[in-house]
From TrEMBL:
Name of this chain's protein: Methoxymalonate biosynthesis protein
Domain 3-hydroxyacyl-CoA dehydrogenase NAD binding: 13-189
Keyword Signal annotated: no
Gene3D superfamilies per record: N-(1-d-carboxylethyl)-l-norvaline Dehydrogenase, domain 2, NAD(P)-binding Rossmann-like Domain
3-hydroxyacyl-CoA dehydrogenase C-terminal domain: residues covered: 192-288
Alphabetical list of InterPro entries matching this protein: 3-OHacyl-CoA_DH, 3-OHacyl-CoA_DH_NAD-bd, 3HC_DH_C, 6-PGluconate_DH-like_C_sf, 6PGD_dom2, NAD(P)-bd_dom_sf
Positions bound to NAD(+): 16-21, 39, 98, 103, 125, 149, 280
Statement: the UniProt record of this protein carries the keyword Oxidoreductase: yes
Pfam family, one: 3HCDH_N
Signal peptide residues on this chain, from the entry's feature table: none
Site (Important for catalytic activity) location in chain: 146
TM region positions: 12-33
Native organism taxonomy: Bacteria, Bacillati, Actinomycetota, Actinomycetes, Pseudonocardiales
Gene source species: Umezawaea tangerina
Family: Belongs to the 3-hydroxyacyl-CoA dehydrogenase family.
Amino acid sequence: MTAAAREEGGPLVVVGAGVMGTGIATLALVHGVPVTLVDLDRAVLDRAEVAIARNLRTAALLGAAPPDTAPGALTTSTSLPDALTGSTAVAVVEAVTEDPATKAAVLARVSAAVPEGTPLISNTSSIPIDELAAAVARPADLLGTHFMNPAYLITTVEVVPGPRTAPDVVASATKLLGELRRTPIVVRDSPGFVTSRLLHPMINDAARLVEEGVASVEDVDALMQGCLGHPTGPLRTADLIGIDNLVDALDVLHLRTGDERSRPCGLLVAKVRDGHHGRKSGRGFYDYEEALP
């Protein structure tokens, strides 16, 4: 973040208004940071505004909002150039789909439009940051984060500098996370980093057990909760992550590590094919009354 941007109250620009983008936007807003949320689809932005309003209420009810801080102002835009023209952004968070080519294309456009030294943050669960750095004008400005869903409630964030990330950019990003009352844990760049490298193959294994008829969805989750202390169960966690995002991340891990445990099992692939993506679609391993945007 640039000192000038912070002094002038520059916004956090979030590109991508899906579940993660709305969660990250909520986190910033709840701590008084203005947000410009960008998505090419106006309908997606309209749903995101509704979700953010709901998230802000939830954060307040659960004590996740500082009681003495007024929420930041939210601006939305369907034009990335318009959102970045004359930018004084504190940082730009890319939160589009977990696809390397899509993320690289967005980051390339962002890096061409913002001043040198503005942190470019790719929120990714699996893609190596140095791989994405090949697409940007200034690899020193790029680093990764892995916010967990819901970002406005989970207080620990994985931070991933690439080999070419500048130390002052890491310092700026971790300072911003501190202002958002998040605990940043910095890890070395690699496919899946720490959390996805451990969690995603485990979820894949859990889905495979259901596919093989070893146990029901409910019983797999109950056993993991009751016997091993997993807070929600792996399959309910898959619904929260988004099964489509999970499969994309598993594909990245399998391709880059060769680990067969990361090859998405047939049940996960079938759910993606059928549009059963989890909470955001209203149906995944479980059914939900309301789909998330």
